[in-house]
Specification:
The protein is of the alpha+beta class and about 110 residues long. Helix content is about 30%, strand content about 15%. Strands 1-2 form a two-stranded parallel ribbon. It has a two-stranded antiparallel sheet with strand order 3-4.
């Protein structure tokens, strides 16, 4: 199915095999990286976030972390309203880990 969306071999290989995070010094930082921009969520925001995470788990978009394994990064996750009030868009704030990654210049 993904072949219909792209012919780029790098994209297709990343979808099939995953891709390594390009850490700036080539080595993953010790311990999970936290994003300092996290904010408290209301009960309603947590409810929407839970709904979206459960959808992604059901679709196979994300996988649970194996028990006892530490995450590479702890990214704030929240949702924002779509055009209709009964729909939300999931957002994963990756600013913390991005500070530790190689910068790819597109020029």
């Amino acid at each position: 199915a993904w072949e219909a969306t792209s012919s780029n071999q790098w994209v297709l290989a990343a979808i099939r095999e995953g891709c390594r995070i390009p850490w700036s010094d080539g080595v993953r930082p010790q311990g999970p990286i936290e994003t300092p921009h996290a904010r408290e969520q209301s009960a309603e925001e947590r409810r929407w976030s839970r709904i979206e995470v459960l959808k992604m788990l059901a679709e196979g978009t994300v996988e649970p972390l194996p028990e006892g394994e530490l995450p590479e990064a702890l990214n704030p996750f929240f949702t924002v309203p779509k055009k209709t009030p009964e729909e939300r868009r999931p957002i994963c704030d990756c600013r913390g880990p991005n500070l530790h990654m190689e910068h790819q210049h597109l020029r």
